[in-house]
Every structure is written in C-alpha cells, then in structure tokens.
Specification:
antioxidant activity, Glutaredoxin, 199 residues, 6-stranded mixed sheet, 2 domains, alpha/beta
Length: 199
C-alpha cells in the first residue's frame, strides 16, 4: 500500500479536527443555554441538597441538626428562598426588611406553613455568620461556597427571591420569583400570601 505524502496528510488532519469541533457545537450551545436558564414562576426547582446546620436553624426547619438535608425535608408547605451575598450592598440594605418580614411571619397564623432560608452565594460559613450577626437575622442563612445551590437557580443577581411549593416531593413548583429588593416588607408579605394561596 502506498504511503500518503505529508502534504496530503495535513489537509486530512485539519478536516478531521474541524469535523470534531463542529460536531461538539450543538452540545456546547445546549450547555450554555442551561447555564443561562434562570428560575422563574411556573418552573420547577430541583430538590436541592444542602449542608447540615446548627440546632437553632434545624429546629426552625424541622430537620436533624448537623446532617445534610434536602428542600423536601423541611417541615413547611412553602419556602421563600433568598439568594444573597454578604458583599452585596443591596442585600445589606434589604437585611432590616428581611428581619421584619421573618418576624411578621413568625407571629402570623402561617408561621409553620411558610418559612424562609437564605443562600449565601459564594459565601463561607464565616461570611454568612458575619452577615447574620451584623444584621441580627434569625432565619437560616446557609453557605453556598461552591455555587452548588446557586447553579439550580441560574445566573441571577442578588438579592433574588423564589417562593416554592414544598408539598410535592421531588421537583418543587415555583410560585413567584423576584430579582432585586422589595423594601416594603408589608406589601411583600401580602404578595407572598397571595401567591401561596394563604390569604
């Protein structure tokens, strides 16, 4: 069999590499589309796995302390998730309103039905603890240093809010989302009650 001359092999190699690159484009495009997908009303949030937490938070959520848990383990019908960062100035300004919202929920008839957690995107345990102490927040603030939980929400800014229905195990229907501050906790409370059907 006659050997191919190097001048013949080069175009063949280039053609093969080009074919492989073009074949990979649809998969890469789909991957990018998934990364850019932002959680919105009417979608489903996966049953996110979260790290174990302290006794105070565990009691509020109805889960064992110090053990990893999923959203479906939380004893509530509905959950408001706040995506925040200790370094976000909007989150810092929103903190007193979140404190007031949580306190109003605790004294309402729906204290056990709707609960709140905060996900500190890119934040360590120390950073969320600093944020909690600085603004005297009593609802669970959970670190998400490797963006594992954030990846389920999408590329959102902070703060970001999602109200999800926990009554179904597995995927959780999203009833409401908002990117950006709400500032008026009374109006936001009424909106949450309406979206959850608790009015």
């Amino acid at each position: 069999m006659r050997a191919l001359h190097p001048s013949t092999l080069w175009p063949l190699a280039v053609s093969a590499l080009l074919f492989v690159a073009l074949a990979a484009l649809p998969a890469r495009a789909a991957s990018l589309a998934d990364e850019e997908k932002v959680l919105d009303e009417g979608m489903e949030l996966a049953d996110i796995q979260l790290a174990g937490t302290n006794e105070q938070y565990a009691e509020y959520l109805g889960i064992p302390a110090g053990q990893p848990f999923a959203l479906s383990d939380i004893e509530a019908d509905y959950l408001l998730i706040q995506v925040f960062s200790m370094y976000c100035p909007h989150c810092q300004r929103e903190a007193p309103h979140m404190k007031a919202l949580h306190e109003r929920l605790l004294t309402s008839d729906h204290a056990g039905a709707l609960k709140i957690i905060g996900l500190g995107v890119g934040n360590s345990e120390y950073e969320v603890g600093f944020f909690r102490d600085e603004y005297d927040l009593a609802f669970p603030l959970l670190p998400d240093p490797d963006y594992a939980a954030y990846d389920h929400v999408g590329a959102v800014g902070t703060p970001f809010y999602a109200l999800v229905d926990l009554k179904d195990e597995g995927g959780h229907p999203v009833l409401f989302t908002q990117e950006g501050t709400f500032e008026d906790e009374d109006a936001f409370y009424e909106l949450l009650m309406e979206k959850a059907g608790l009015k």
